[in-house]
Amino acid sequence: RWQGADPKILNQWLALPDEPSKEEAAIIAGEQLKVEGKGFIEAGGVRLTKDRFWMLYRKARTYLRGITWPEFWGHFLVQLRELIARYQEGTATTDRPDHFTLTKNLWCTPTPVTTLLRQAGTLQIMLFSHPGNADMSYSEYYTPHDKDFYFGAGHNGYSVFAKDRDLLLFANPEYEQPEMDRLFQALEGWARGPFAEKRALRCVLIIPYEEGKPNRAHCARLREHFTVSEWFTMPRKTFSFWDPDWWRTGVFRAEGSAPWPVAILAVENERARKQYPVDSAPLRELEVWLEANAKRKGVTIAGYPGADLPVIEAEPNWTGIGERVIEKIARR
């Protein structure tokens, strides 16, 4: 019956927290964990922000719903400890040559930004993230560790470019030039591959955008295959990424700001532009957010070129909703 429903209403229902089971109610009551004020939860020596703890709990419980709750709880705490150890800044994953190997700069794009970009561009996949910092409003997210499947993650964001499907992506690559080069090369490779003529691709990325630097040259080459739009450009020292440990410390805003200009770009083919029209309303909202959060007062953010266009009401997007509905029902 849900297939006849309005997808917007379904997404609102999917965003509601599940009713806790008896075991979860015991947790909430403090029998298994310590709630510190309103913002944090501590369990088994692990301390996380409350929202992130429950996000990870839901993902893990869905994956291991076939075992008893006491078995799950012990396993879950082990996985949380391993997750924290994996994503300390400065660590690396080199056990496989196809891994996204650097975890040197774990600063991430603020969730209000990624959520509004998802809404504007009908984005579905977050390419480079981890279970602690991923925007879980995306239907899929990819990480550098194959062990993160426990929390619902896919392994190796670059693997999506080999799949015969529409790709509606958000990418915040590591800000080491070889890793940014790799993303641009993957986009160029897709444009020359077998899916370019029959599939839609939109990749919204946030990157350093200095004049005379390699990223500018990459964008010029991409224009041979795609439309590359500057949705937003922000002067140096105006945009701040979130602290690497925000999901554990609750400290979201970094003290400093990016020492170079930052751009939010949309790379897309004609099929994506026609099949998944951009909704300008979230972009208008994002422009207000960026200006309000600029580190230097009085800074004007260069908004995307279509900001003066009327709002486009995109066709309902059913991608991933069925699976998420079934997943939520299975948890009840």
What does this protein look like?
It is a single chain. This protein has 11 helices and 12 strands. The protein is α/β, with parallel strands linked by helices. The strands form 3 sheets. The protein has a 7-stranded mixed sheet with strand order 8-7-6-9-10-12-11, sandwiched between helices. A 3-stranded antiparallel sheet has the order 1-2-3. Strand 2 and strand 3 (46-49) form a beta hairpin. The longest helix is centred in the first third of the chain and has 18 residues, at 69-86. The protein is globular, with a radius of gyration of 20 Å. The two termini are 18 Å apart.
> Helical proportion?
25-40%
> What about the largest sheet?
7 strands, mixed
Shape: globular
Number of strands: 12
The number of helical elements comes to 11
Distance between the termini: 18 Å
Rounded to the nearest angstrom, the radius of gyration is 20 Å
Overall mean pLDDT stands at 81
Spatial order of strands in the largest sheet: 8-7-6-9-10-12-11
- SS class: alpha/beta
| SSE pattern, N- to C-terminal | HHEEEHHEEHEEEEHEHEHEHHH
Low-confidence stretches: 94-103, 307-316
Work out the strand percent: 15-25%
List the helices and strands and how they pair.
Elements (H helix, E strand, L loop, with lengths): L6 H9 L6 H7 L5 E3 L3 E4 L2 E4 H14 L5 H18 L4 E2 L9 E2 L7 H11 L3 E2 L13 E4 L10 E2 L11 E5 L5 H15 L9 E8 L5 H9 L4 E8 L11 H4 L12 E7 L1 H6 L4 H13 L28 H10 L2
Parallel strand pairs: 6-7, 6-9, 7-8, 9-10
Antiparallel strand pairs: 1-2, 2-3, 4-5, 10-12, 11-12
